[in-house]
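Section 5.1 Outputs to date
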Amino acid sequence: MRKTKSLHSVCRWTFNPGKGGFVPSDIRPSWNSEKFTTADFVKLVAEKIKPRLPENIILGIEVHYDTEINENNVKEVVSALKENNIYLALITPGAHSHWAYGGIASLDSEERKEADEFGIRTVDIGYEMKDVWNNEVTPTFVLWNGSWGYDIATPLIKKMYENLAESIANLCKYEEKRGGELFIAIEPKPNEGHPAMLLPTVSSAILFWRYLEEKYGIKREKKGVNKEFGHSEMIGLDHIYDTVEEILNDTIVHMHINSQGYNDGIILGGPGKFDIDHGARINGMNITIAKLIQEAGYKRWKGHDMQPRPYDNEEQAIERVIRSILSWEACEIVAEKMEMNVLTEYMEKRNTAKAEDYIRELVCECGKVFNELYR
């Protein structure tokens, strides 16, 4: 239906055997990490997902160093990506898997040193995968704050912030020496894995980059935010407003178009809940965001950072990823048809009920477009 290229990325961590804890850890046994490698994941995406998508969609993958991509498997993964014409869209240091006391923000100097070195190795692996970068859209190097947290109220939170800034400034300088081709993004999150986190919101991330520029001379070109819808939803923030801030500050460099639920009247979740990670939803908010990023000229990767439901088998989990990609494509197709002059006239005349009707009609249209794409 669309001729415009659309870049979507699939996350390695979605394909897990089960979350464990209060739910089964082996509901999808063939995805056990010991026998289901990252190269296997690439092949699965090529065989089970790619054929189900429109031809205008270009696929990439997202991986954590060092649990999903590392020095031992990088050549095998690159080979699989080349063979299947899939790209590296995002790489991120999985420091939260190793350090729990702040990582690069830690007050423990030894932990901070180790985490710093870990980030450098992640940059190196990213450049080692250069053969599978998309020629037009380079990958994003995402910094997620899973270990940059605290649970005690002390004045030393300021010291943690300063540690974080110094470490990321050094990382940016190292990446610049390697070529300066990666886009570097902060992924804000209000909690997980600590009750309180550094850089919890989009505004925090934007302010942080300005601080790095002023104090360390880090240029803000190719620096920004990994826009994660669900993380804003978790604390009741408005991810449409987040989008406006990101666009006006030229910081939207990657997207995770997942959902915590509650805003389509079908799935549950929302503020105060844990990170549920549903796929993209069809609703008025997402059509609005799709319109905003179209007007802003965003043409980078749209990632699907999501989890299967605890009861899904492999087939159902794959189906959710396909549905997420097609749901967002439907939102973009309908957003292209949105008549801003009509909407503007309603709003200027205070006819908000008619504006609401117009958006609802777009949502209904979006459902029909999804059904076409899905068939």
